[in-house]
Every structure is written in C-alpha cells, then in structure tokens.
Amino acid sequence: MRRKPRQARSQERVNRIIDVAEELFISQGYAATTTNAIAAGAKIPIGSLYQFFPDKTAIMQALALRYEERLHQKLAILNNPDLVKLPLSVLVEQLIDITEQHFSENPGYFAIFMEVQSVIPEVQAVGDAADAELIRDFATLLAQREAGLETVDYEAIAFVLVKTISTLMWLSLNQEQQFRQRLVAEMKRFSLSYLQSHFSSSNLPDENLGRKN
C-alpha cells in the first residue's frame, strides 16, 4: 500500500476498495477491471483510491493478503498445545477440513487467482510467504508431538505436506462438487499415510478416515 490507514474511517474506505475490487475481479476479470471502475463502485474519488494504492496490482496484492490472513487465522489451531495430544488422524482431518472450508467460503480466491497467479509476482509472493509461515508452524507442532528427529526433518515433512495439500486443494476447485469431495478424502488419506510413515509410534487412526459412510 502507498500508505496505511490510521483512522477507522480510512480503514473502512480501504476495506471498501478491496471489497469492490474483489467483486469486479470475479465478475469482469482482473484484466478488464480498472481503478476508475473500482473507485466508482466504492463511491470514492479516484484520487482517494490512489492515496492508498498506487495501481491495480497493489489492490490485487492487498486482496491476496486478505485471503491468506483469513486462512492463517483459521489454521491458528496449529498453535494450540492440545493438538500435541491428538491422534494424527484428527490432526489431518482438522487441517484439511479447515483449508477446504476456507476455499468454499472465498470462491473469489480461485476465480481471481487462476487469471493472475502467473503474471503478477507480487501475488505469488504473498502466497509463498503464507505457506512459509504455515510450514514453520506445522514443523514446530510436529517437533512438539514427535521428538527424536532433526529440525531439518520436521521442516521437510511440513514442507511436503503443506505444499501437497495446497496444490491438490487448488486443483480440486474447478472440479464438480461430488468429485471435489472425493479428492478431499484422498488428500486426507495421503496426508495421514505420509505422516504415519515418519511417525509410526503415533496413535493409529480410524481406518475409515477419508472414506464415505
């Protein structure tokens, strides 16, 4: 952002700009949306928009950051010490269900990022930073619940798991709902098997994890 809002009124204006931009990016596409259209939709002068955002890319970056912050807030359960005591099956279930819920509640994430992910490096940087933070949190959690490995081992396991889940979740978003749910179940099965291959002493899961009743 060009400058950060310091007053509630300014923050409300920034939020309105991002909200309108999100709606236009979804309905018209990122490329077709202009800052003039965003300002008009937000009912503010174009000069007010430029006080906070130098261009459309900066607004897109702010929207990407909002999406990632929402997901990280949902996944803050990884900082819960009680998770150290849970079976891996429950941990995997929560991690994937929360991630899937986030994408379901924010359909614009996929609609918008499919268009811009390869052409706006600033947006990719936001996602990479969010993944890095989640990997650190998950590696810390694994170290707390399964002592005996080296730090680099926990980091590598967390990296593979986070990147695999995020990639498969992303690929599932343009599938029919029924098949998407099947893919979510397969993510759980894969993730649990992967963790158990490293932590064989963990509590065994319900063998029906990830299967439909």
TrEMBL record:
The keyword Zinc does not apply. Residues 11-71 form the HTH tetR-type domain. SUPFAM superfamilies: Homeodomain-like. InterPro entries: Homeodomain-like_sf (IPR009057), HTH-type_TetR-like_transc_reg (IPR050109), HTH_TetR (IPR001647), TetR_C_15 (IPR041669). Keywords: DNA-binding. Pfam families: TetR_C_15, TetR_N. Residues 34-53 bind DNA. PANTHER family: HTH-TYPE TRANSCRIPTIONAL REGULATOR PKSA, HTH-TYPE TRANSCRIPTIONAL REGULATOR RUTR. This is TetR family transcriptional regulator. It comes from Calothrix parietina FACHB-288.
